[in-house]
Amino acid sequence: MDFAVLHDWDLDPRQAVALQRELAQQVRLMPTVAESPATVAGVDVSYEKHGDHFFAAVVVLDFATLNVVDQAWADGWVDFPYIPGLLSFRELPVLLAAFHRLKTVPDVVLVDGQGIAHPRRIGLASHLGLWLNLPTVGCAKSRLCGVHDEPGVMRGEAAPLLLADEVVGMVLRTRERVKPLYVSPGHLTDVASATRLTLACTRRYRMPEPTRLAHHLTNQLRRAALSS
DNA sequence: GCGACAG
DNA sequence: ATCTTGTCGC
After folding, report:
1. Whose CB is within 7 A of strand B?
2. Nearest nucleotide (C1') to the CA of residue A177?
3. Are A180 and A199 in contact (CB under 8 A)?
4. Binding site per annotation, positions of A for Mg(2+)
5. In sequence order, what are the residues at sequence separation of 6 or more whose Cβ sits closer than 8 angstroms to the Cβ of residue A22?
6. Domains along chain A?
7. What is the pLDDT along chain A (228 residues), one digit of tens a residue?
């Protein structure tokens, strides 16, 4: 499975929404993900402001030490437009291409985006989880949908994210007095474990180490390609 | 109809 | 997401 194949979804936005409604039924929320996974991966994508050349990276860390144990990347061209709610149709293909080059299979994957905190309960993290058949967690920097109170200012404090009176995630403070993260389960996990895992992977920065490192790698790849 | 709107 | 320099606060 390479990028060309993955990219050939050939869907228009309307068909993408229909596909999401189908796939959303396959998303499984488990009472808990492995209490202490051996490895945790982070994924991210970057590209030029008005460009279609995408770079994806996946970094695998040892959960206990947060040391990098494996990583891979891929690039490709995307034509699907950015539409709130349809992000996965832009980022998933190149992300899966990067995953395919990984030698390791992580126990859980942290994603830069929403999980079930999505209008149709299938954000990028959930969609990726279905493809990989792995537990995934959505760690978004901002809100797509849902309502919530402001969480306390201390690290670890959180406020439930509600969508149609349902708790779909947590607005989690990963650093004292710093803008909180929108954490939601992607697939094969649940709100509580997604929140615990995200906090356990967060150290000195707002973003958890796995996605933060993936973001870093993805940026240097793009800048390297830009200067050549 | 109007406003919101991951990356 | 990305464009961009300095600057305010812990």
Report:
1. A 44-45, 82, 84-88, 112-114, 118, 123-125, 138, 140-145
2. C10
3. no
4. 44, 112
5. none
6. 3-226 (3.30.2170.10)
7. 444 444 557 789 999 999 999 999 999 999 776 668 999 999 999 998 888 999 999 999 999 999 999 999 999 999 999 999 999 999 999 999 999 999 999 999 999 999 999 999 999 999 999 999 999 999 999 999 999 999 999 999 999 999 999 999 999 999 999 999 999 999 999 999 999 999 999 999 999 999 999 999 999 999 998 776
A112 touches strand C (CB under 7 A): yes
A4: left (phi over 0), alpha (psi -120 to 50) or beta: alpha
Q: How far apart are CA A154 and CA A167, in angstroms?
A: 21
